[in-house]
Amino acid sequence: MKVGIVGASGYVGQELLRILLSHPKAEVTKITSRQLAGKKIAELYGSFAGRTELRFSEKIEDKDLVELDFVFLALPHGVASHWVTEEVLRQVKVIDIGADFRIKDKATYEAWYQTEHGSEKLLKEAVYGLTEWNREAIKGAKLLSNPGCYPTASGIAAIPLLKEGLIQSETIILDAKSGVSGAGRGVSQGVHYAEVNENFKAYGIATHRHTPEIEQTLSESCGESITLSFTPHLLPMNRGILVTMYANLKAGVSKKQVDQAFQTAYADQPFVRIMPEGALPETKWVKGSNFCDLAWRVDERTNRVIVISCIDNLIKGAAGQAIQNMNLMAGWPEELGLLSVGQFPG
User: Fold this and answer.
1) Could you give the CA distance from residue 92 to residue 96 in angstroms, rounded to a whole number?
2) Does the active-site annotation cover 292?
């Protein structure tokens, strides 16, 4: 399969290329960056020296679409919805790693992202790519909306309990921490070394744009409208996300039922690792991998369940899950090219 990456100069774009260079059935033949057109990617990321001679093009031309099988879009919000058209989708399958096709209601998207959506029709047709919970629909998708990093970790943590009706949905609180790469490669004061190092802070309280995506994902999983509290924090590290979910158990729900819900949901999922008894997820063990590490505790004193979900935000939270979805869309095993062990120390 021939693959193009639009926006390959960012952190997620280069991760896509890095992983796909070792993929046995996919070949990246086109990468784009408007600002860096004509330059080799190895000039921007020295890690690619000796591995690829690919140069950035300014954009994907119509003639390129005939030669490509898949296009990944790693673009700022508000761009992809104007680029993707029905004509494009007749020629190539598209995986959008940005936010433009995640939220099904146009008005909700525009309210949270403060930009006009370019295609309400395609918004309804796009398939949401939380792989563990939408696998069959993903297989037939032409336009795939890759989930955000926080929604990925949050969905994996919450959906088994919601589907089994074990928790009081109105009590869900998501407390999340992310490394600095989640902010992208652009320069801003908040991600300067001196601002982040030896520091820990919350941000986007009650306003983070992943909130409606998380609520939509959880609502669809259980057939009821979910409203929750989500607070992200910035950690002084490069990459990784750790989400702690709190929720009240319904009356009479036992630890055995909670255990069974998670064990049943993820027994055969290749990229969800349930931690052994007594262990808890840590960001260092998923760094550089497509795995989500998961653990939970039932606090009988407060009648709450506490769930810990941990991913690499650039891989399972972005590029890796996108390739996992590409594999399904192409009819290949979803693990193809993604089973490398994480990096340690990183």
Assistant:
1) 13
2) no
86 and 175 together in one domain: no
143 and 192 part of one domain: no
- The tokens describing 326, both together, are 């590409």
Tokens found for residue 28: 């990246």
Distance CA 262, CA 99 (A): 28
CA dist 29 and 3 (Å) reads 6
| Rounded-to-integer distance, Cα 99 and Cα 112, Å | 11
CA distance 31 to 295: 38
Q: Which of 108, 97, 182 has the alpha carbon at shortest distance from 143?
A: 97
pLDDT in tens, the chain (346 residues): 999 999 999 999 999 999 999 999 999 999 999 999 999 999 999 999 999 999 999 999 888 999 999 999 999 999 999 999 999 999 999 999 999 999 999 999 999 999 999 999 999 999 999 999 999 999 999 999 999 999 999 999 999 999 999 999 999 999 999 999 887 777 678 778 888 899 999 999 999 999 999 999 999 999 999 999 999 999 999 999 999 999 999 999 999 999 999 999 999 999 999 999 999 999 999 999 999 999 999 999 999 999 999 999 999 999 999 999 999 999 999 999 999 998 888 7
**Which string of b and e fits 8-34 if b means at least 16 CB within 10 Å?**
bbbbbbbbbbbbbeebeebebebbbbe
C-alpha closest to that of 266 among 225, 229, 296, 230: 296
Identify the domain containing residue 182 by its residue range: 150-311
Task: Confirm if 343 and 287 have CB atoms less than 8 A apart.
Answer: yes
Residue in 149, 222, 292, 310 annotated catalytic: 149
Q: What is the longest distance spanned by two Cα atoms in the chain?
A: 64
Residues 129 and 163 in one domain: no
Asked whether residue 121 falls in the same domain as residue 166, the answer is no
Domains of the chain: total? 2
